[in-house]
């Protein structure tokens, strides 16, 4: 896993999916609550993205999950939180490795990476 090279384009796509996860989950659940049970291209894509992020997140240790949540899922942020602003017992390098692990897992789940 440590030697995997991810292109900038693929990483950007994967991180965008991770970053948008909370909003996409709300949109998907709202759609279902309003009676939208007919499968569409959007629902299929949403299900795939949500499942990829959830599976990848669950594969991490609880303390690693906290880093991902702090970096990507704080309510009201418009972009990922800089590592230096994340209060944890981890160094910046360790946090980057945790994020890289999440990106790799999610990328494989999404089919963006082999």
Written overview of the protein:
Helix 1 (8-19) packs across helix 5 and helix 2 (21-33) crosses helix 3. This protein has 114 residues and is mainly α. It is built from five helices and no strands. Helix content is 64%, strand content 0%. The chain has helices spanning 8-19, 21-33, 41-58, 62-72, 92-110.
Estimate the mean pLDDT confidence. 93
Order of secondary-structure elements? HHHHH
Number of separate strands: 0
The unreliable regions are none
Q: In DSSP terms, counting alpha (H) and pi (I) runs of 4 or more, how many helices?
A: 5
Report Rg.
15 Å
Structural shape: globular
Essential attributes:
single chain, 114 residues, mainly alpha
How would you summarize what this structure contains?
The protein is an all-alpha fold.
Please outline the helices and strands.
Layout: H1 8-19, H2 21-33, H3 41-58, H4 62-72, H5 92-110
